[in-house]
Amino acid sequence: MLHTIKPGEHGALGEPMAHAVQACVHCGFCLAACPTYHELGQEMDTPRGRIVLMKQVLEGNLPWTAAQPHVDRCLGCLACEPACPSGVPYRDLISPFRALAQPHFKRTPVERLRRWLAGQTIPFPGRFRLALRAARVGRWLGPLVPRVLRPMLELAPAAVPPAESWAPVTPAHGLRRARVALLAGCAQQVLDPDINTATIDVLTRNGIEVVLPPAQGCCGGLAWHTGDLAAAQAFARRNLDAFPADVDAILTNAAGCGSAMHEYHLILRGTPDEARADAFRRRVVDVSVFLIRLGLRETPPDTGRRQRIAYHDACHLANAQNVRCEPRELLRAIPGVELYEIAEGHLCCGSAGTYNLDQPALAASLGEQKARAVAATGAELVASGNIGCLTQLQAHLAKSGSALRVRHTMQVLRDAYEGREK
Fold first, then answer.
1. Which residue(s) pair with 286 in the sheet?
2. Cα separation of 119 and 256, whole Å?
3. Which of 178, 235, 330, 350 gives 367 a disulfide partner, CB atoms 3.0 to 4.6 angstroms apart?
4. What is the mean pLDDT of residues 6-23?
């Protein structure tokens, strides 16, 4: 007789995993929401199918490697969660399972090297900047680079924007209405540091003092979503120590980072830091949510110009944090903006952290589809709240020959305040 997963059976993460597995009634509502099911049409590449596989592995009825290709293909976009009538917390299963599975999954030496390189560069802005410069040499070498490493070169931008720095404290303009701490991010600092500059500008214009803790680091999301629990815990502890208590909120302007920080209680489950992590995550708020809650002190000036903007829901804002209305409200607050919805907007763009590196064919297909859907809106600009989505949209719109501009919501709002077009 098959046994069921018991809470605590697989260490500290066993209880949330067991709850997630037991909550699934296999109704199939998740299938229509799942990007990999759209792409592959296979039951095992759906949330329902993966839950069955993970359950069988955890109960000892299947080898770990039986689940590997299907678990690896999961984007972690969490589109299944809002689609699920039973409220299955899929996030409590997929990342913890990957953490448990890491020593059991079989990978080639080159795959392990690629994952190690990503983990040792992307979360560290200085190293990441150097790696992107080195990618130019890799592109010059062309066919000499191993095939499994080529997606890293293809994703590297041709040019990296100049580095920017920000003061530890930027005072509010006029009467201070709030004081917040901002996560600066890691990849975002390198790929588009102006996002942070725009965020600080918008916040301070609205009477919000901004603190950037100098000891902060990567949110740990990249490590957590690829199963590197030890690294994820180290990043989480660093931020628990770095962020001050005397702020009204801890703000994020990257959907993936905010989602990861909301899972610190799970990342540090069973450790002495679990309670501290749980208190910390409750203070984490996306910048768009904080601005809407506080209310804009001033709206951007009316320049008389009309602007057609499409808004792309980043998965880890819409699905993981249930943030959909607030970014749209901010964009609609700009005089002259016409906001457009994107067809099948619930489907992931294919970025998903390092998914472009690990599953390049699937990521490219999803990116191409999203670019076509964005272009079909007739908008002149697409806005979103996540650096991974912005990078993916920019790459695939450019490949399709579209001149449509890609901007973060905070950049659009900052530019509107300054009465300029970007």
1. 252
2. 16
3. 350
4. 77
Rounded distance between C-alpha atoms, residue 202 and residue 140, angstroms: 41
Tokens of 174: 């006029």
Q: How far apart are the first and last CA of the chain?
A: 64
Percent of the chain with pLDDT over 70: 94
Pair type for strands 169-170 and 284-286 = unpaired
Q: What is the per-residue pLDDT across 24-69, written as a single tens digit (0 to 9) for each?
A: 999 999 999 999 999 999 999 999 999 999 999 999 999 999 999 9
- Whether residue 385 contacts residue 286, with contact meaning beta carbons closer than 8 Å, is answered with yes
CATH number at 33 reads 1.10.1060.10
Within 13 Å, how many C-alpha atoms sit on residue 195's CB side?
Answer: 29
Per-residue model confidence (pLDDT) at position 420: 66
Answer yes or no: is pLDDT of 4 > 50: yes
d(CA 63, CA 19): 21
Same domain? 201 vs 277: yes
Give the containing element (helix H, strand E) for 66: helix 64-72
The domain tally of the chain equals 4
- Say if 422 falls within a structural domain: no
Look up residue 313 and give its two tokens. 């829901």
